[in-house]
Amino acid sequence: MNPVFPYVPSDPGDGPMAIAQGTALATAPYPARTVPVAVIAPLSGSGYADALARRGRDAVAVTLGPGARPPAHGTTRADEAYTGVIEYTGDLRRTAKKLRAVGVEAVVAASPAGVELAERIAWQLRLPGSGIPDSALLRTDRGIQAEALSRAGVAVPRTLRTASLVEALTWADRCPASTYRLASVTIGGTPGPVECPTKQSIAAVWPQLQEAALSQSGKAALVLQERVEGRQYVVDSVTRLGPGGPQHAVTGIWAHAHAPTGLLDRIDLLRRHGLLARRLSRYVRSALDTLGVTSGATSCHVAFEPERGSVLLSARVVTNRSRGDEAVWTITGHDPIDAALDGALCASLRSSDRHRSCVSRVYVNTPRGAGPESAVLQVLAALPTVVGLDTDPNSFASGTVPHPPGGRAWEIVLAHELPGVIERDYQRIRVLIADLHKIRHP
User: Fold this and answer.
1) What DSSP assignment string belongs to 404-432?
2) For a disulfide at 137, which of 141, 210, 235, 415, Cβ 3.0-4.6 Å?
């Protein structure tokens, strides 16, 4: 399979390769008309403006003003292709009035910080939003989400949401577990979950994690959960409102594989017709109903234990658009942005189930300062199954893909009709990266 998304250096200093950025998404049968779409809280390089332009849509950015955004939240660059920029400073009606004046017909959240505001704006404009109004915390806050699911009888890990280290340690005494996971309350943001085997490790990482969470989300509370055993999966879905209410369609199920270090090694796209896939799909649809999801794309992180069954670790509204994401969406035909633009067309694309390729997303940790990095990237890009290559960890690292310590994270997307061909290239990748480490640390 020919690459559909060539390697693009995230920084001009990455190497001598001069490869122009290719279009990751195939031209789709969208109507040739210019319709404004509100893009809420986009970050620099988010890709939304370009993605909408390819669909014949104008992108109007709604940025968060100084008093409405977390300290570390970035904003759009002046050279990005937005046809207009509106700053939200806390006056919802004023912002909605401006968007109504330019004829906005759809609203999308472009970052975790924009999910709640996007839902409120969509409600003001009487447009589809990702969830039931005034319930955004069910889809954005780990602790509140786990509590709501538990009350509804949906299996979740034992969970505590608190800003107090003392309370967290007391809870750990009452709820013993082999390992705990500590994370920001904001789903989809950074820092991602940190595994803590003991109370001492919880206390050791708490100050740094709390400071980072406060900077990234503006919230000091953290979530402490028991670590659930069993293999982990990500279940992607799209929801649209039908005559009988929200209709949830699973668009992809991804199986996690972790390295001995505990870092995520790769995720593999599963066929959706096996017994396990059907069980995961039923469980996720039930969870989405409980969380009030009414429209758009959602990604659920689930652990599965044979005796316990499915356990939801988190569910998030899809806001990220990495290079790897776009390469995968090209292959599968399921781009989340389409759910916000045209539910009927999106459903048509889903029902075809047109993709037959095996797909893997591989994560590697490269040492900083390794000399022949650009040569390795060229070798990787030339492998027959490589369809996406991203060297900017900020574009894909999230709660399920943590930054590796002391190195740089790369994501490599592989696709082919035959799983054996993917496995062969995967082994080649591991050899190349191992050689890179040997050169850096002989």
Assistant:
1) PTTEEEEEEEEEES-HHHHHHHHHHHHHH
2) 141
User: Along the 442 residues of the chain, how does pLDDT read in single tens digits?
Assistant: 333 333 333 333 333 222 222 333 333 444 445 789 999 999 887 889 999 998 889 999 999 998 888 776 767 665 578 999 999 999 999 999 999 999 999 999 999 889 999 999 999 999 988 988 789 999 999 999 999 999 999 999 999 999 999 999 999 999 999 999 999 999 887 667 899 999 999 999 999 999 988 888 888 999 999 999 899 999 999 998 888 889 999 999 999 998 887 788 999 999 878 899 999 999 999 999 999 999 999 999 999 988 889 999 999 999 988 888 999 998 988 888 887 786 534 443 444 444 568 999 999 887 766 556 678 888 999 999 999 998 876 665 444 455 555 567 889 999 999 999 999 999 999 998 888 777 766 5
**Residue at token pair 């200093």:** 13
- Structure tokens of 113? 């910080």
Predicted TM-score of the model (pTM): 0.85
